[in-house]
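Just wondering, can you check both lines?
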Amino acid sequence: MNKFLFALGVSALSPLVLAKPTIVTSIKPVSMVVAAIAGDHAEIQQIVSSTASPHDFAMRPSDLRKISNADTVVWVGESLERFLEKPLKNAGKEQSSIEWLALEGMSLHNFAEEAHDDEGEGHEEHEEHEGHEGHEGHEGHEGHEEHEGHEEHEGHEEHEGHEEHEGHNHDGVDPHVWLSPDNARVLAKAVAARLVSLDVENATYYEGNLATFEKGLTAKDAEIRQALSKVSTVPYIVFHDGYSYFEQHYGLSHSGEITVSPERKPGAKKVAEIRREIEEHKVQCVFSEPQFSPAIVEILLEGSSVKTAPLDPLGGNVAMGKNAYFSFLDNLSGQFLSCLG
């Protein structure tokens, strides 16, 4: 009888013993790096849909619940996901979260000064992008409640004393850090350390995944560098100025961008300027992005023989799994090669 009661007790406790750590991530590139380390030993819950953009995202009640129940929240930082700052603070998760931009060893780039000078152009034309009204219909976003006036949306309120928020002051920093394999390595190490602290029994598993990721990243990086070296001098224009980490890492250099802030459409002056750049620099390709309407690219290239192709900085079509980040790098380099080669 005692043995039966003991077995029953162990059985009742087993869900607690076997419970996986819950890691909430902000965007898909973050999820990719986390998945490489977590494997099937942790549950990953992503906030921003793989088909949405973090630049104009609005939080929902279901997202707030994810944050509240998370063991750890992994995000890029307030300069990309400002909508997360207040919810993290309110949930008491600010100190336990992993902010990619703030990790030791990160290589950060500042946006070009001249790009910010141009940002004022087109402010009067701050229109909503097609397909971004409330993000309805985006797959992979469970519990998508209707946005009624956005009264409940955290992150759309003013942040009192925001400039005094220590550790999150990255004004002028390009937040697209996942486009650098070196920065991905930094996050992978931080995630491994956190998972080991949360799930000591599986420490060897996480450490092994980290070693595998680092070895695979070195090989993939060398492979892509060799492939892109063939198009390093081909001039192109990107949709928005968000690829500097990838471009500098692999020796590419765009001739210009359509907009600095992707949520803003460029004004007539900027459009005319880009058309001049296309002619003067003999631009071979103008890249669009699947998260935003391609209409402006079509207007720019009307009557032109310049090629265009989508460049997806978020890896929307990449299948999640331990090798997702490698697939993302493959896809992105392939998109460059398809239009520049």
Residues 203-228 form the longest helix (26 residues). DSSP finds eleven helices and eight strands in the chain.
